[in-house]
Amino acid sequence: MTGDGINDAPALKQSDIGISILDASDIAKEAADLILMNSDADQLFLSIVEALKFGRLVFENLKKTICYLLPAGSYSELWPVVMNVFFGMPQMLSSFLMIIICCLTDCAGSIVLAYEGAESNLLKKKPRVVTGERLVNFKLLFHAYFCLGTFYTFTSFLVAFLNLTRRGLKFDQFSLSFGSYQDIPNVTNWLNMSSSIYFVNLIILQMFNLLSLRTRHLSLFQHSILKNKKVIFVVPFVLLVNFVINYIPAIQRTMGTSQVPVEYYFIAVGFGLVVFTYDELRKLIARKYPNSFTARIAW
After folding, report:
1. Do 20 and 167 reside in the same domain of the chain?
2. What is each CA distance from 268 to 35, 153, 157, 291, in whole angstroms?
3. Under the cellular component aspect of Gene Ontology, which terms does the record hold (predicted)?
4. Does the reported pTM lie above 0.85?
5. Domain count of the chain?
6. CA-CA distance, 220 to 283, in Å (whole number)?
7. Which of 138, 143, 156, 170 could join 299 via S-S bond, C-beta 3.0 to 4.6 A?
8. Confidence of residue 39 (pLDDT cuts 50, 70, 90)
């Protein structure tokens, strides 16, 4: 509700958001929740629309950032520890590489998402229920943990154990071993390599997830890269971090990392394309069939 006169004061008081202007009566300004300082009438009401747009945009980008951080930075890092503690398997992702993900690679992507531009349908959506819609709800957690996190974890373990199998090591040599595998010749080097492979798989999957999360409803192909040019710099930054920690001998020796065979990069890109394609199809179904199950569980 907008108003500037004394007679508007009751309506301003009763409305969800009462908006008054700088030249309004003192009573109207007292009753209003928001006072617009611009004296230009045309710009005055445009600023209300802009405020609504950016208010929604901040909320959207916060959700995107949280959804980006959860699959790799918590869920996929948790399971190597669980498998190590409860099933006696070697920790497939080292603690050092977990820190690199949390403090460098994931941090870069999450910062970039904060600058994401608005989707073209942002102001066409129904307003959220302020008292009922949470920033982090079940739908977001389901998408981040069950849909993305489970796929991340499964594929990362898959390529890590594939590497061990190619080195002549069997799964039963590690399952419920609780450290007895230390007597296997050259096992430390192979485990370091598998840990780095697990890491590479996660960071590449997150690159594709970053692209997907730029939009919640529209296809990425309907959302110009010009709305957030900073995304372009994330990929080279992440690859640079990967090179420094996995390919510099001094860091390899100190932190227990290893070079990653090139074929595992191609495998990770294949998994990343699965993530990207899945999310594009999910958004397409939600747009075409707004009453479908997919649309109802869309975060």
Report:
1. no
2. 52, 12, 12, 34
3. plasma membrane
4. yes
5. 2
6. 10
7. 143
8. low
